[in-house]
Every structure is written in C-alpha cells, then in structure tokens.
C-alpha cells in the first residue's frame, strides 16, 4: 500500500461538511481520518505500517484543545500541530530502527496557522485544506531503518 491523499481528503471533507456537536466529535473525526490514512504508509525499504501508539494521545490532545475554546487561533493551530507532531513521532513501520524525523514541522505549523486564521467558506473547504496540510507534513518526514539480510541494507527516506 501507500499513503492515499484522496482517502484523507474525502474523510475530512465529509466529516466537516456538517456541524460537529462537541470538541470530542471534531477530535475523533480528525484522529480517525488520520489513523485510516497513516495505516497505508510504506517506508523506502518497503516496510509497511506496524503501529502508532500516539493516536489515542492525539485524540485526547485535540479534544482538550477544542474544549478550551481559546480566542487565539494561532494558539489553537500551534497546539494542533504539536499534537500531530507528537503522534507521528510514535509511528512504527517494518524495518524502522529509529523514531520518525518530522522535518516539515515548522511548515506544517505555518500552514495550520494560515488555515485557522483565514475564513473558510465551508467545513468541506476546511477539511480539504487540513488534509493537504497533514499530507504534506507526513510526506516531508524521514524514516530510517535496515532491511535484514546478508548484507543488510540501511535506508533513510520519506514515506510513500
């Protein structure tokens, strides 16, 4: 498999096309969509998704961020970005030997600040832009590992 942007985009567009009744509902929509998307990940050594224990923490952190109802949209964007960064760093793929390097974090944070600071014509548009931000962020990360064998083959590269 591979990361499929259209899956993430359609999930978020559909889930934000109607009003979310609670902070928990919005957080679940985002976390569940991200979880479905990330399970298709492959590293450059062709190792597939093996787990991401941080997904439950992501859900909790998003719920807490939305429940605070902060006036500062920059603060909201920063907290959401940090929650995703914490989560992605827990990603495990087959053959991976060290934590994921999230090289695109500062760009991800900037994109989210722009998203939360600008008017969106609809929840669908918000979902589409959030999906683009997440996809670019994930694809800018680096996964390092070793394919076993004789000789073993080390690798480092972005997910696919």
Structural summary, described in words:
- With 160 residues, the protein is mainly alpha-helical.
- It has one domain (5-157).
- Helix content is 54%, strand content 9%.
- The protein has 6 helices and 4 strands, in the order H-H-E-H-H-E-H-H-E-E.
- It has helices at 5-15, 23-38, 55-68, 73-88, 105-117, 123-139, and strands at 49-51, 92-93, 143-147, 153-157.
- The strands form 2 sheets. It has a two-stranded antiparallel ribbon. Strands 3-4 form a two-stranded antiparallel ribbon.
- Helix 1 runs antiparallel to helix 6 and helix 2 (23-38) packs antiparallel against helix 3 (55-68).
- The longest helix is centred in the C-terminal third of the chain and has 17 residues, at 123-139.
- The protein is elongated and about 55 Å long.
- The mean pLDDT is 96.
Our Rg estimate from Cα atoms comes to 16 Å
The DSSP helix count reads: 6
The rough form would be described as elongated
Q: Give the CA-CA distance, first to last residue.
A: 9 Å
Whole-number average pLDDT?
A: 96
Strand content: 5-15%
Helicity range of the residues? Answer: 40-55%
Total domains, how many? 1
Unreliable spans are none
Which sequence of strands runs across the widest sheet?
Answer: 1-2
Largest sheet: 2 strands, antiparallel
Query: How many E-type strands?
Result: 4
Order of helices and strands: HHEHHEHHEE
Structural class: mainly alpha
